[in-house]
Give the backbone structure.
Amino acid sequence: MSLRITPLTDPARGPHGRRLAWLASDADSIPAGTAFLRLFDGGQEHLAELDVRVHPAERRRGVGSRLLDTAVSAARDDARRCVVAQAEAGSPGDHFLAAHGFRKVLTLRFTRLPLAAVDTAALAEILARPHPGYRLTSWRGTVPDALAQSFAASRRAMDDMPMDDTDHGTVTWDVDRVRAAAKAVEQRGDHLHTVVAVDTSDGSIAGFTELVIPGNGAGDGQHYGTGVLPEHRGHGLGRWMKAESIRQARRDHPGLGGLLTDTADSNTHMRRINDGLGYTPTHTTHKHQLDL
């Protein structure tokens, strides 16, 4: 088919990375597919993340291949070392990436907690369990100034999260970055809820869990990340914080249906926490990587 690839201007450029976009259209200017390439910075300058979408009626006509070639070429021009992309296991996208030289580097398990089915007695038991030397606190939106520096420092809790063979790098966080991330959630109309465990000996943050709630308070919320600093692990803080996040979601958003999370298949510790809290599997995706 006659195909035109048109570069687009990304309306969502952020302070910690940029995104390139292309539209594929046929000879009659009818859109057939899109490609987005996110170029990271702050410790991930080697990495680009690709999202290619082709209308089902236009598949197997070379649209995806043309978009892929265009995006990969742009990644090379930007001196990126690798490109990653994600697709549901067994889907056309999963097979497409494998057929174009990508290798599977990570399996992600997606689960959902229906809030109406939460075992409130078990949740209360987790929250009532003593955690000597720690207390929980929380906020909505941007981190309070008094905790901003400690919260930014606590983000290194995610540095050693299981990523299997992904060339993920180490994201560099500072106060400006955590504030920008919260601002991005606010600007799209959603609500960011954060629960942290505080070390009572010095007031520093030992771990955190983040939850994003749709702006209308309906549908499903999405967990963004849960991490405990290595020196504070082994005290049950991850389960404690997540239980409090669930409690607050049920209390503050009665119209919310459930909570979604995704966890690396190899992250057995976090999977056990989710299983124990009542999260049930929904689907599996594969992350693929193309080394340039």
The first helix runs from residue 63 to 77. The CA atoms of residues 217 and 252 lie 9 Å apart.
